[in-house]
Amino acid sequence: MRILLAGATGAIGTPLTRVLTDAGHQVLALARTESSARAVLAAGCTPVRADALDREGLLRAVDGLAADAVVHQLTALRAPSRRVAADNPTNVLRVRGSANLLAAARVMGAERFLTQSLVLGYGYRDHGSRFLTEEDPFGVYGEGPRPTASDHVVTGLIEAEQRAFDAPHVAGIALRYGLFFGPGTWFDPTPGSRPMPVPLGGGGVMSWIHVEDAATGTLAALEHGRGGEAYNLVADAPATFGDLATYARRGRPALRLPAWALRTAVPYLGELMLDTTLRVSNAKATRALRWTPRHPPR
Known about the structure:
Elements: E1 2-6, H1 13-22, E2 26-31, H2 34-42, E3 46-49, H3 55-62, E4 69-72, H4 89-108, E5 112-118, E6 126-132, H5 151-166, E7 171-177, E8 179-181, E9 198-199, E10 205-206, E11 208-210, H6 211-224, E12 230-233, E13 239-240, H7 241-249, E14 256-257, H8 259-265, H9 267-273, E15 277-280, H10 283-288
Helix pairs in contact: 1-6, 3-4, 4-5, 8-9
């Protein structure tokens, strides 16, 4: 296939470009800067110089180009924000970026559109010991009378998925990834990387996905996924934030904070790491996509 990939130099995009090209696909990689263009060219992709948030510029850049599929992997998750607002950069990419990339898919004649989503759309709360599936409600907001820091994240995920599913000119597929770990993520094992703070007691249980498994799962969805479907791409075994930090740091000290300090420093991380227990099943993806995760988070 000929694929337009947005987010080719990100934590998932970097291994994904390699996985796609190794599988024989041709990758047109969106590149906003000259340095990004050089990076994707070195990775064996054809750079397309455009900004996904500049609709007119993007459509000019893809005019005359053809693609079979568009893959949206754009985020701005370099570091956690103390407050999450409706206009936070990742939300803008999920909402306005999705709309612009769907317009580009129409111009290029693409018939498939894959968008990045997250299992966090099932809700920032304690879900107990049950494993959630794609049949469970998605787009669940925080409990209580006031909006929570996580509500804007959930809104962005709903928008990204719904735009992909509703577009009449493509078969839209949502990839509900677990929380990412591996190179380029908040939980980066690379020596010298900045440690991510985690709760002193380990925090809640979460479903995770290594960026290499996220890349192979994306390839599987591209080749075998059905339009209008969502797939949970998670590792087999959930783990606490503390366990994951220990694994990712490979014995180096993790930054552990008491619950009150974590909530004060970054309220969003309090909701994510302290209030949320989220075990998610990958059974549908392993069955329908013929995909197997290879990197357990322990």
